[in-house]
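The aim of this short unit is practical: by the end, you should be able to scan a pair of folded records and say something sensible about each. We start with the first protein, listed as its amino acid sequence and then its structure tokens.
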Amino acid sequence: MKKFFVALAIAGLMGLLLLVAGTAQNKGCFPWQTAVTTGGGAFSEGDRSQRFCR
């Protein structure tokens, strides 16, 4: 039974690691969300683009 809990803990840590890696690659959004950038076009001065998750 102890081996089962160790395997479950390792699987949980691997899942958490994949979630963090997917979030980092998706510009701060969860992997199942879409990163949407608004503003900050080529001709905008001082208007910084903002990123939202949807």
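Turning to the second protein, read its sequence before its tokens, just as you did above.
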Amino acid sequence: MSSRTPFVEIACQQVMVEDASVFSVQWTDLPQAIAGTLSPGELLVRYLAYINTCTLTLIRPKILESGIEFRLLGTRLSLISFLPPEYSHGCATIRICGGFLVQPRQCNRGELRFGVEPQPEATRISLQLSDFCPLILGSRSPSLVRFWLYRLTQAAIHRLVTIRFLSLLYRERAGASAGLRVINVAVRTGKPV
């Protein structure tokens, strides 16, 4: 390793698309020398443990036979419920199937995908939320107040959590002093949140 501090970029985009669902993606490219043998399943397990830790156990991921629930404190209240993971093509996908933070008529829509994909000189680690219909937005035509409430709360928290998670993965492998920069990317069209 050179005397210079390693540096990584985390790419990020969060938008509300035409149908008022949310698309959010964050990724980082780990050099092959430090990527190791991280699998999509391991990435999912690490993320669930991280959610528990970073929220100071306020949100507790619970793995059940029927899927995964992000429960509030020690209650049975599921903030977001997912079906069991599906694995294919370098990804682990958990599909949204309910929860308090999801619009009731959109419970069977949306997914969270954990990707580990080889690139020419790196391994891309990604988290992608697609077709999510947050309760805060309320409908397919949310008011400006609802949009800003979502943007300043749930969207901001999701972005912070995923960026810190990717940063943690990188620093575990490259060292605690590894540099980090967040860059905005455009993957899908939509209104930034």
